[in-house]
Amino acid sequence: MPKYIYQYANWTDFYWQNAAVSAALGEVRLLQGKILGQIHALGFLSKEEKNLETLTLDVLKSSEIEGEKLHYDQVRSSIARRLGINTAGLVVSPKNVEGVVEMMLDATQNYQYPLTAERLFGWHAALFPTGYSGIYKIAVAQYRAEEMQVVSGALGKEKIHYQAVAAKDVQAEMDKFLLWFNDEKVVIDSVLKSAIAHFWFVIIHPFDDGNGRMARAISDMLLARSENSMERFYSLSQQMLAERNAYYEILKKSQYSSDISEWLIWFLQCLQRAMRETENSMQNILLKAKFWEKHKNVPINERQRLMINKLFDDFYGKLTSSKWAKITKCSSDTALRDIKDLIAKDILSQDAAGGRSAHYTLVC
Question: How many angstroms separate the CA atoms of 239 and 262, rounded?
Fold first, then answer.
């Protein structure tokens, strides 16, 4: 079996095929500029909503990559509270949700500050507030003291995918990583640095658990730095979840050599795809922004606002009064009053069928 990358001297002297990486980086930077240009055309509330949605997806999808499914409303509510966004219907969020939100917001809202061991320990403590990962007690807010293997398969038939840096070397390797991360004399594009930092951190695997989520938070921190902005409008974690098998495969393939060309190109192309998803969705966002601008002086209650936003964003099938009542948790009579009120305001229209099969369409 070939030696792991960290078993070579000077393994962190990474190198890559500059032409191919530069081309992929140039495409990312071009898309970044296009998206930010489109975003600046939005009104304040639309930008705020898009930022909240992206941060929510980042938290949800980064956790889901590790097999942990969080509740959308709990994550969104936690972020909204911390950002001071006035959103009706906020729900209580448990400690594990508050913790991962705290880490992500510290990374993206405080991107300009140095990354230190203490800051990483704080992130780790936030991720594991009980001191347990599932049913297993782990070392929290400190580097791991045990050896680490990434394995799969049944007990006795395990397949080792990766043997991490020896526990005795973690402190020294992390000191080197953080020195590089915070060294302002290292002239490197922050987007490219995001890809390198992600890989470097995963190779060290410095904690008992949570390394993947922390690596993605570090990447998001550097992407925020690359735009000099606390606002996030595309989700790298969402795209990585969509390409999870490829994500794990390229990390596995790249763990034997300091030539990280393939990893960098994959990361940058994954980022491109995340940005294109946002670019494609911008037409709907702009349409939504135009709608709210047109109706900014029209009295609309919170149930109506919720349903109108759902019709723009993620509503499947036909809108009926029974669906309205179920989603907004109101009575059938209240749902029908809400709908008739919007019809009178020329915001909804009733399709031809009447009676119990009546359904309604948004007037844009």
Answer: 18
